[in-house]
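ingest -> fold -> write
write: protein_1
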Amino acid sequence: MSMNNERRILIMTSVAAEKEAILEGIGQTPSIDVVLAGVGPISAGIQTTKALLTKDYDVVINMGIAGGFKDKAAVGTLVIADEIISGDLGAESPEGFITLDELGFGASTRIKADSELVMHCLTSLKLAGISVQLGHVLTLSSVTGTSETTKNLQDREPDAVAEAMEGYGVALAAQEFGKPVLEIRSISNPIGPRDRSAWRMKEAFDTLERASKVIAEVLL
């Protein structure tokens, strides 16, 4: 049973291949718009803001593929963010990375996803037989490609299970408009030294399509 027949959903995704997979999953659903966010948090924030100015959406979701931390989010599985975190917004120091929060500028790099919607989606996806887990998802402007950076991120954000490039930008725009936000990611590759042979794009897009179908059914 749907939660609210009047709910209007905005799904932001970065590239055309992700959009196609999501549309395959949701089918002809007038209450859901799938909009290209572009790549990176700045483009995502701009495009989400533009979309939110055109219609009065009830929920904003950032969906797409992502890298998963080894032993936390396996390739081909799904991740739902309980917290969306800008992983590289801050300052370097000899003692280590200083987050924007710690710098004391009155801004935060952490945005919580809507807990009620998160749990509703998590339960429904599991019931649909999709391997899914909850955890922090990092937003980075540069994709991680070394063991050193991977370790630094894991040490700094031990609850992080995945990284992508748009979530924080989408979430910041949603927060500005007072809209609940979700980030849902299908894992296409392990985070670490860049290795194209380890990427499993077809599996990731298949999972994204299956997840989109469930999301459309449970959130409308």
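write: protein_2
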Amino acid sequence: MFERFYQESRQAVSLAQENARRLRHDHCGTEHILLGLLDQRSCLVARVLSGHGLDYERAYQAVVRLTPHRRAPALDAEALESIGIDLSAIRERVEAAFGPGSLDRDPVTTRNGRRSGRHIPFSPGAKKALELSLRETLALKQKGIRDGHLLLGILREGRGLASRVIADAGIDAGSLRQEIVLELR
């Protein structure tokens, strides 16, 4: 499906992964896709939502406030040791090969412009929103998925945390949907 994505929608998905990592979440949900859209300030979705008073910083704080319990669990050194894995020995070997603090660094950008780091799986709601963005694209008789289609998919999914962030910002989903559809046409 990603072959139909325009650059700004691919970038939104990439930024969604980065936001999930930054928040130390164990999945990439609709809230992370919303953050990825808002993180591109010159794109359609960011412009429209900021016109309604929802920008990246406000959405990020809302996600932090609404998801304090959803952080990925830290490795339990004692539990790993009980099955014969010495975490400190692994850390020493990794740091000997890649340098001190290499496990503590954020992912880096590679020569081809990609970010290194592990892929965080999409939640069922995020997968549904991505699928619905394709359906929204087809319903509008358009060829590629733009950032606006991603937002339409999020709105149509309607149960994810992104929808709650939008509603908590006082934005009516129905009128936002109409506004995005008009912009996309």
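write: annotation protein_2
The longest helix spans residues 7-22.
The mean pLDDT is 80.
pipeline exit 0
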